[in-house]
Design goal:
Blueprint: E1 4-7, E2 10-11, E3 23-27, E4 30-35, H1 40-43, E5 49-52, E6 57-60, E7 62-67, H2 69-77, E8 79-80, H3 89-102, E9 109-114, H4 127-133, E10 139-143, E11 148-151, H5 153-158, E12 172-175, E13 182-187, H6 190-196, H7 202-218, E14 221-226, H8 233-245, E15 251-257, H9 261-266, E16 278-286, H10 298-310, E17 315-319, H11 322-338, E18 347-350, H12 356-362, E19 368-371, H13 374-386, H14 399-403, E20 409-410, H15 421-430, H16 447-453, H17 456-460, E21 479-482, E22 499-504, E23 507-511
Parallel strand pairs: 1-5, 2-6, 7-14, 8-9, 9-10, 14-15, 15-16, 16-17, 17-18, 18-19, 19-20
Antiparallel strand pairs: 1-3, 3-4, 6-21, 10-11, 11-13, 12-13, 21-22, 22-23
Helix pairs in contact: 2-7, 3-4, 10-11, 11-12, 13-15
Bound molecules: zinc ion.
């Protein structure tokens, strides 16, 4: 019999026929009936809980196809230095001072989410700025992008970074032009820092994960893809423990860091291993052009991709700059050509700059794009000010990706921006920055397309479309109830829509 019935709802099942329905019944964690209000009396047994949804809109639970769970959790434990919380370097100093006063003398002080463009000073803080806030405790201040960070003088010396330190491959140590002294700003140096900085304590991490769990469920997110490039077997086992403890409920598709494939093969964890709560996803490869040159160089990239492809894995390449996206597209299509494989579903993560000649390279090869529409909302102003005008039309495209058959799926890249799909939907449909200014409006999605990017396309990008992404009988009962219909309200009002209830595996896991 059915355990739970949600009736009197405006159900957007996202099936091909686009038909709406009014009622969804659930049994044993799966959708067991989709139909009309009048079916209620027929379906309701003595032990069925029936909830009147009062006409609210019911959609498949949102899928965040690219985020970083542990980094998001730990960012929630750091001092908030995001544009929502600080306006100037002085504000950052005040936040860090507060963090330092609460921390034991040997503990690192963490700040997260700063974005220099939105600071009054319009520059990155330096080690000397941070020294003023905390001279005697090491400080690590992370940039919103996750690709830059600032250390204070003590942290630099603990990390062994001096004027004589050479850059690790792909990394940049910013230096004072006159003296050659490191200014504290480090680019693409996360791997390096992971080796020198102690991880967050277990209790603190657990607390961060609980908060991340609450945050995601309150946004209606029921599945996430963790795209962290350093994901190892050890971390997979940590995720297993986290899932067993039940402190983090959204289903996790765990990407494998390219350097760690062997560990998984040796542990006999085959391609797509795991279960509905935690499963293995693509192999993550990072390709950057931050320092001007491609890292890894094209030759090495090609060998890496070919090897991963030959081993039968799905590949996910981080590529932001047009140069990197082009190289990623080329490497993938050459690998597919060399070793043909049906249904590989190789993904390009971000695909931020995609001018026409690059899009042509991606088209027709069954590649997928995983994009971040909410960046337009949170960073649109910055793109308009800093990205060369000729590149702006090709930034975070969406409409063209859909037309080119790249089935764009949407994500937050949290902690880069908060994992709120409704802001992403809003930005995908309106192309508006927080201030209301427009970024390439010709790339706008229809509300239905944008909804698919946050549900079905995300499921497809992880080979899970038979289990997730639409409201259909037999699928996992992962649902979000909204107090507005994103396909009916004026686009400017999509961001005001609130999640009222989140259902995961047939359980009500969050309610407003
Ligand atoms: Zn990412």
């Amino acid at each position: 019999m059915h355990n739970l019935i949600l009736y009197n709802a405006n159900v957007i099942p996202l099936r091909d026929d686009n038909a709406r329905t009014e009622l969804v019944a659930i049994s044993n964690g799966r959708i067991s009936w989709v139909g009309e209000k009048s079916d209620l009396s027929l379906l309701k047994g003595p032990n069925t809980r029936a909830i009147d949804c009062q006409g609210y809109t019911l959609v498949p639970g949102f899928i965040d196809a690219h985020c970083h769970v542990l980094a998001y959790a730990s960012s929630l434990m750091a001092m908030d230095c995001s544009p929502a919380a600080v306006r100037s370097i002085e504000d950052i100093q005040a936040a860090l001072r507060k963090g330092a006063s609460a921390a034991p003398i040997d503990q690192w002080v963490r700040g997260a989410g700063y974005n220099e463009f939105y600071l009054e000073e319009r520059r990155h803080p330096t080690r000397w700025d941070l020294d003023k806030a905390s001279p005697d405790r090491p400080v690590r201040l992370s940039h919103r992008s996750g690709h830059a960070l600032v250390l204070n003088s003590l942290a630099l010396s603990l990390a062994g970074i001096t004027s004589k330190t050479e850059e690790p491959p792909g990394g940049v140590i910013e230096r004072d032009i006159q003296t050659g002294e490191p200014t504290g700003l480090l680019l693409e140096m996360n791997d390096y820092m992971e080796r020198v900085m102690p991880p967050l304590g277990e209790a603190q991490m657990a607390e961060g994960l609980r908060e991340a769990n609450r945050g995601l469920l309150s946004f209606g997110v029921t599945s996430v893809h963790d795209a962290t490039p350093s994901n190892s077997l050890e971390r997979w086992l940590a995720f297993r423990r986290i899932k067993e403890e039940g402190i983090f409920l959204p289903r996790v598709t765990f990407m494998i860091g390219a350097k760690h494939i062997q560990e998984f093969l040796e542990a006999d964890l085959a391609v797509k291993g795991g279960d509905e709560k935690l499963s293995l996803g693509a192999v993550k490869v990072v390709l950057t052009a931050t320092s001007g040159a491609l890292n890894p160089p094209e030759d090495e990239l090609w060998h890496t991709i070919l090897r991963i492809h030959e081993q039968g894995f799905q590949v996910a390449i981080h590529a932001v700059e047009a140069q990197a996206v082009l190289a990623a597209g080329k490497a993938l299509s050459q690998a597919i050509q060399r070793v043909p494989r049906r249904d590989h579903r190789h993904r390009i993560e971000h695909c931020s700059e995609c001018p026409p000649e690059v899009l042509r390279e991606l088209k027709g090869k069954a590649l997928l794009v995983v994009t971040q529409p909410a960046f337009i909302y949170h960073s649109g102003e910055r793109y308009l000010a800093e990205v060369p005008q000729e590149m702006q039309p090709w930034l975070y495209r969406m409409g063209s990706f859909a037309k080119a058959g790249l089935a764009p799926s949407a994500s937050s890249d949290a902690p880069v921006v908060p994992p709120n799909p409704l802001l992403g939907l809003y930005a995908a449909v309106t192309r508006m920055a927080e201030t209301g200014r427009l970024l390439s409006p010709e790339e706008a999605s229809s509300p239905l397309e944008a909804l698919k990017a946050y549900t079905l396309n995300g499921a497809y990008a992880a080979f899970q479309e038979k289990e997730r992404g639409t409201v259909e009988v037999g699928k996992l009962a992962d649902l979000a109830l909204l107090d507005g219909d994103p396909t009916m309200v004026e686009p400017e009002h999509i961001r005001d829509i609130r999640v009222m209830m989140t259902v995961l595996g047939g359980e009500i896991v969050w309610q407003r």
